[in-house]
Amino acid sequence: MFDSGSIAVPTLLINETVCRSNIEFMQGKADKSGVQLIPHFKTHQSAVVGSWFRDAGTKAITVSSLSMATFFAGHGWDDITVAFPANIRESDTIKALAASVRLRIFILSAETAAHLANVLTHPVEYYIEIDTGYHRTGVPYDDHMLIGSVIRAASESGMLKFAGFYTHDGNTYDVRGRDAIMNIHRGTREKLEALRAKYAPAHPGLRISMGDTPGCSVAGDFAGLDEIRPGNYVYYDVTQTLIGSCNYDQIGTVLAAPIVARHEERLELVIYGGGVHLSKDSVTINGKTIYGLPVDLLKNGWSAPAEGCYIRKLSQEHGILKVTRAVFDRYKVGDVIGILPVHSCMTMDLMRFNGSIMIVT
Amino acid sequence: MFDSGSIAVPTLLINETVCRSNIEFMQGKADKSGVQLIPHFKTHQSAVVGSWFRDAGTKAITVSSLSMATFFAGHGWDDITVAFPANIRESDTIKALAASVRLRIFILSAETAAHLANVLTHPVEYYIEIDTGYHRTGVPYDDHMLIGSVIRAASESGMLKFAGFYTHDGNTYDVRGRDAIMNIHRGTREKLEALRAKYAPAHPGLRISMGDTPGCSVAGDFAGLDEIRPGNYVYYDVTQTLIGSCNYDQIGTVLAAPIVARHEERLELVIYGGGVHLSKDSVTINGKTIYGLPVDLLKNGWSAPAEGCYIRKLSQEHGILKVTRAVFDRYKVGDVIGILPVHSCMTMDLMRFNGSIMIVT
Q1: Is ipTM beyond 0.85?
Q2: In this structure, are residues B321 and B288 in contact, taking their beta carbons and an 8 Å threshold?
């Protein structure tokens, strides 16, 4: 039950029912395929939402920074992968974490491996991040010279254990529809399987691991993989619906924003909800750049997005919401409207500090 | 003096010398024109940076939310304007602030005026926000029926005092060069002057007030205005240099980011510094979307941006920095590079929580 009467400032509503359903759906698919789901917690950065994963059986988690790792270690998580190129300037933090939890990191260069091999005092498992075509970062999947040099440099220390290969298949974010996502997903899986086949004889037990929400959402199974590490699926967002990862009713979070002005000549509502709440992430729909989609807030959740309405611009605190005549007439100054975020990870990161968070069921 | 040896995570460097010079330059121009500078503190949201303004003579400040107003009231500021359409859902916060500081707010509708007139218990001054063509929000400058209805509704209470007209001349952000900025700036000033001439006889002492950094930076004087409220000029940023508001050596803040990977085949450096540090705000330079420009960090500041280099993409924590061969060869994994932000207000908002802040001189 949700009563908008208590909303005074931009407030991120988190729908526990929807989120738990998203968590259980992915866990069920992973269990059926016999792969370990190691969910990415960068999406929510929340001890409470983390506890919903624990309820669903999650034992190990993924994060994108050592500060998040430290935060979740403080909330009882003891098997944490930092899915970001190891930063040798944070060696002290790596050492401190490794002393208290099972820590897994990513290493992409022989220099980093050599540095860590030299300073670590507790065991750390490492994955070599692989670039299968997204070109954000990672070792090219066919660069065996570089892979070999990382493994050799790491093996100089008894503290670094080779855990396997990981890739973030970000190319799935650039396509639309299940078939296109699966084409990319299958190609990436095959490259990882080939790497495992090549390196497993010398490194028994090494694992292959993938991370993107679109691929993990639409794949029927995860046969052949050892681990999956999606994160966004707990909330989903407008971007994921456009890609084809989910439907609108699977989106687990919405920004409740007070309406502070109406401009009838432009059919625009001005909301208290700007770039410091939603983030400046945008998507293109029908040739228009949009920063969020409005929904009506209901007692037990929220409606589907209103057809033909969208956030057209964000300032620091203002959101400019383009609406139809019908929506314009329905809302007055002082009402609260919901905004589905374009990118829930970024919105959540901001809303931890700028505004309020409310869990609804 | 600055030693990059202490940088482990993304760290926002604030150059006190440059910022104080920016603060004093604008104060000097305002003093010469006999207008009151009421700087916008949303850019820095910092008690320390605020104290530099106090040193330069600032007595009254502008903010963009009641929570910022509450923050700065707690740091001894007692004349605060909230430059955002008054949100009637926050009436209790407005009342609490009005009880302790000189509070000025923006009212854009008769409904909001009537609501506040009904609930206020301490005096509040209000400006009518005017839309002179930017179309973000505000009463159209020629809509005298609406202006009249706001004034009438507000006058039902002895607590609301009509202070004048304000406009944010955001159109100056869409042009390039001094002449284009000044064309817009002059047109807006004339519209405000006409409003003052029309309403001053019935409301003696009402003031006209403008807010944008581009216009206030390039205008030689502020003759005719009563107040200016720019904010970004304390730091400036890449966007302001492109508009023509400043030179690169006037930029007062830079993100110091550790390099965590190098990709020679693409001449790209991967930095620990992503959308949760810089924000996803972007600008277009030579047809390319960019999210920041790299500089070398020096003992007493930083260099000019490296020609032909730019952040091409941001993930949550990753920044992908496209560089020239020369820059690529100069940096190794574990080094720290500086990134000039596209939009310093958004970067500052994020860096209050995600990473560190360091003041350098």
Answers
A1: yes
A2: no
